[in-house]
Specification:
The chain has helices at residues 2-12, 16-32, 36-50, 53-66, 69-78, 121-135, 143-150, 158-173, 193-200, 220-237, 242-255, 260-270, 276-288, 298-307; strands at residues 100-102, 108-110, 116-117, 141-142, 178-180, 184-187, 191-192. It has 308 residues and is an alpha+beta fold. The protein has three domains: 2-82; 100-193, Orthogonal Bundle (Arc Repressor Mutant, subunit A), CATH 1.10.10; 219-307, no CATH class.
């Protein structure tokens, strides 16, 4: 982005032709790299200097459709005559059901009941980073925080890589899935199974551990919060809804195979089912790998856990 800085420097010393050439070269270079968001941003400066209202209007509609509201506002400030231009309709607005980001299990996205797996590791990391911010009560995640999360190895191209990732995610899942804010990005008009579960306690929303497909990179605090909430709901169902409690118990054991409370809950809720011996022996092997020596018989284990 050296040409971008050069252009502003040339403008400051009153060299308009050099400014236009520097901005134009930067826009072309960004577009050649496929970084359309940044190319449009630089191109807006060309429109400002050349007074190209028609082209600015086209960019305004592009910014609105892509959810880049801060640059839409900049465009209207540069060109007051465009303030009456209607914002492009939100493709998610008018739908009875909002698209859902599902993270309790494999990461999926789409309308409830017809979600698809989200392809691309970085794309999944971006979506869960934005959801993580929202779960913490911070809907907007700064660019600096996103770059630190997504590209911890550093490098000069972090900003460009983030812009391209946001662009490609919008192309794949819809322009409204991610909003651009003044200092970063936020999830758009999107629902999530994690938020719904924490709000309702509905255990059927859980298909597996939080970010099951990328457990090693999961957000530990959020994973622990969801695990604790799911455990509390499962214990509440043991007496009157044992089948549901057993299903959730197995999910808890899958998320943390060393959770003795979850194992005891699953055994208690499942009753004297013949598959329990196989399930218990598998869990026992996991525990023995970390130095625990549970009883060979699951009934003895359960009795000891109840008495503890």
């Amino acid at each position: 982005m050296a040409r971008f800085a050069l252009a502003f420097a040339l403008e400051a010393v009153g060299q308009p032709q050099g400014v236009l050439e520097a901005f134009g070269a930067t826009e072309a270079a960004l577009r050649a790299q496929g970084i359309e968001d940044a190319a449009q941003e630089v191109g807006l400066e060309v429109d400002r200097l050349s007074g190209n209202v028609e082209r600015a209007g086209q960019r305004l509609r592009w910014f609105e459709a892509a959810g880049i509201t801060n640059l839409a506002q900049v465009t209207r400030r540069y060109f007051p005559q465009l303030r009456e231009v209607a914002a492009a309709p939100d493709p998610l607005a008018g739908q009875t059901l909002r698209p859902r980001l599902e993270v309790l299990g494999e990461l999926r996205f789409g309308l409830p009941g017809s979600t698809d797996l989200v392809r691309g590791c970085k794309r999944r990391e971006l979506l869960t980073a934005l959801l993580g911010g929202r779960l913490r009560g911070r809907p907007e995640v700064s660019r600096l925080d996103l770059m630190a999360t997504l590209y911890p190895q550093g490098g000069e191209d972090q900003a460009a890589a983030l812009k391209e990732l946001v662009h490609q995610t919008r192309v794949a899942l819809g322009t409204g899935v991610i909003q651009t804010t003044a200092s970063g990005h936020a999830l758009g008009n999107v629902d999530s199974d994690a938020e719904n579960f924490l709000l309702t306690g509905e255990t059927a929303l859980s298909r597996g551990p939080y970010r099951m497909d990328e457990a090693a990179g999961s957000d530990g605090l959020i994973a622990e919060t969801l695990h604790t909430a799911l455990s509390a709901q499962a214990h509440a169902k043991v007496i009157h809804q044992p089948t549901a409690a057993a299903r959730v118990g197995r999910r808890l054991c899958q998320a943390n195979p060393y959770d003795l409370t979850a194992l005891a809950l699953t055994l208690q809720a499942s009753g004297n089912h013949r598959s329990l011996t196989r399930f218990y022996h598998s869990a026992r092997r996991e525990l023995m790998d970390v130095g625990e020596v549970p009883p060979e018989d699951w009934k003895t284990f359960l009795e000891r856990q109840v008495d503890a």
